[in-house]
Every structure is written in C-alpha cells, then in structure tokens.
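Much of what follows relies on a compact textual record of a protein's fold. A record is reproduced here so that you can trace the correspondence yourselves:
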Amino acid sequence: MAKKELPFDEAMIHLENIVRQLEQGDVPLENAIELYQKGMELSKLCSEKLQSAEKQLVSFMGENGEDVGNDNE
C-alpha cells in the first residue's frame, strides 16, 4: 500500500473489497497473500485512526460526558 494517507472511509472500502475477494476463495495463493498483507496494513491504519479519534473525543469530554472545550454558555 502506498504511503499516501487514506481517509478512514476509503481505507474501510478497500479493506471490505479485500475481505470479499478473499472470502470468495478463488484467488491464487500468491495473490491471496498479497491481499492479506494489504488488508492487514489497512486494518492497522483504520485502527490507528479510530484510536486517534477516540483520544480527541475524550479530550473534548469530561469524565461525566459533558463538553469541557466550550465554556461560552
């Protein structure tokens, strides 16, 4: 997979396509290994993006779930 940073939704679409191809079972072994490796890279990318988003949300929210970033009310 290229080093170009994919948006989360595009990475998920690519990952879903890879899973679909592998589930069909008619992919030659060499291609299946390559698809699996790309899928693992995409899975890692998506996981990192989700973790980053979670950290951002936690920093915006207090322990009781109230917004702590906007005290202008």
Observations:
- The CA atoms of residues 46 and 52 lie 10 Å apart.
- The chain has two helices and no strands.
